[in-house]
Amino acid sequence: MIEIQNLNVYIKDNHILKNVNVTLPEKQITCIIGPSGCGKSTLLRTLNRLIDTTEEVRLEGRIMVDGQDSLGHDAEVTELRRKIGLVSQRPCPLPMSIFDNVAYGCRINKMFKKRRELIYHVRQNLRAVGLLDEIKGRIRTPAARLSIGQQQRLCLARSLAVQPAYILADEATSALDPISAKTVEDLFVKLKEEYSIIMVTHTLRQALRIADNVVFMYLGEIIESGPAEQVFHHPQHELTQKYLAGAFS
Amino acid sequence: MKISNSKKIHENIAIIFMWGAMLIVFGLVISVIWTVFSKGMKAMSWEMVSSLPGGGFYIGKEGGFLNAIVGSLYIVGASTLLGLLISIPVVFFLNIYLKKGSKLAYAARMAFDVLFGVPSIVYGAFGFTIMIFFGLRTSLLGGIIVITLLIIPIFIRTMDEVTRNFPRDILDASFSLGATRWETLKVVLRQIAPGIATATLLSIGRAIGDAASVMFTAGYTDSIPTSLSQPAATLPLAVFFQLQSPIPEVVDRAYAAALVLTVIVLILSISGRFITNKFSKNKI
Amino acid sequence: MLVLTLFSVLFVAVMFVGLYLKSAPVLEGKSVWTLLTASEWRPMKGEFGFFPFITGTLWATMVAILLALPVSLLTAIYLTEYAKPVVKKFVFPALDILAGLPSVIYGVWGVLVIVPWISQRVAPHFVEFSTGYTVMAAGIVLGVMVIPLLVSLFIEIFSSVPKELREASLSLGATRWQTTRRVVLRQTLPGIMASTVLAISRAMGETIAVLMVCGCVIGVPHGLLDACYPLPALIANNYGEMLSMPLYESALMFAALILFVVVLIFNLLSRMVLYRIEKKNA
Which chain C residue's Cα is nearest to B86? Predict the structure, then answer.
């Protein structure tokens, strides 16, 4: 479970996230929605501390991941990032073969001693995203040669291979064609049995289809959050109502 | 936990090495500058930079190396002017008249990059053969020509880099507002002015410090040249020749000349950075 | 403008032809191969063997690159992957200064600092006596001179690696160093090699600084503590006397031609690689 407590994020002099308090439940899909520029991506990048790579950033508050503060001084950032996988908007295969892409995280984290185990594990994860059969015999070819939809699933497999507990998805289907997008979306639904998934999306329809929980953000603040049913059908806040009615877009 | 520890150790070792590398770089800068300053200050005096070599200058008697300073200034000034006159049209041609992806532009850029890489001693040797071919002796003119050739690639490469990022929309905007070609040219010039300034400083730096090419072409003399056909002394050569002297006083004067040269180059480099900082952030 | 541009392009060819014509006399007598591999250098007798000078050039260049490469690589990695803006504010001007200092200043520094250091501190451990004017001194001075060039080229190619690639690696739990080693360096390997070739060609042509510290003894160097006599030094040292003998002049022009051709080829190759990287990046 991830509990965000009084989170404030400043980049240079801009107050990007304002006093964010929210709990992201386990083994469910939580969709973060809101107009672009509202801080959705920043929130996601704060969760796995990728935000550290931004210059002149300041974080305040606490993010409890399984009871440990991931913003604390003693937080193991690399371990945190292993535990919280990220699938970005545009698939980004590493400059190596399909196999090495999936094996990358395992090697980085020295997960296996025996090569046989590594091979088995890589194939397992490729199967989980439905790529194994599609790429038969091409597993040693450069990942960049895959179609963009396949690349996105490869990135998902790559994240799964390091055995995370959480998966962050930053508009993971928006760069894909409709069919690939559907495949990836279905994968997420399947994966929620084992993983807690936090998704940023700005297609409301997608959120409606798959979200168990919804967090609505506006201008760096969380306006409303709760079970999808409640937020979508009985929004409490006026802004949420307007957004759902399409007043912003 | 164990794995993240070993990761951390590797990370820290890597960082220590990187700090080591940067300390080396800093150490080198400090070592070079300090060496030149501490040695050069000893023989440094007003006489050194304000008078010509006297009768017994090369056995340690009175005089200075004004000849080299003035010679260097003549050569650098003239070749910078010539270089600018030649390179600005070329840069305009490459960027404004030729379309993006033009073969000629590719070839030209390649040629300038190659010319930039050609060692100055080869320029010197080549310039020397040309001069002999035309029956010229070592002279101010020869030095100016060779240095001009040497710095043109620097001029063009540096200005080209700035101009290439120049938004062509501005041209269209300017034309569509009814501006003439000449007025548009002025707009462009204003845009790339900092580029020209940086390029000029870089070229001057290279021109004033280059010894290998002027050795062949400008020669060396104790007097200030009064015409283009007379040989001219230059600062780097003043350092080089005096350093070979067995007389300590003369060697000290080499250090003084080195100090003058270093100070000039430092000023150029600092002002260059000042200009680059003003218009672009992460370029070296 | 077209004429000026064309002329500049043609200038490369003109230079080659000029140097070739000048070196023709010495080429008439012997084949290129003989000239390059012979070790006898007796201008008075018309014997011109370039082997000692070529090996001298290679030795000094090799030492220079071996020293400069790790330092430049680590510095560039730190500056692109780790450094806060404050650090950059100090390091960039330092590199600027290194890049701007004239060759002759490095020569002075070499004579005052490196040469005595080698002769007093290093050499006594290995040989009985050394003046310090050695391959090692030439290599160190050259190495220092190519560091700024290498660092600026490296920074440019490292910056061409998309941020997303680094983030992909980081979000799998990789440290910065792991990311650098396994992703950034891997991705930029062609660029790193091209830059190194460029630096090699720069080091090969460097004249005055090397001339001042290399020892200028004709002979094939066999180790770091032997004196050497690289090609540029040969040309610069003999420019005065060569006029008296046409064949001697021709031999020196041939030395310039060798330098020109090698530098030309190296530059063409590495620039082509770097252009491609730049294009992909744009």
Answer: C4
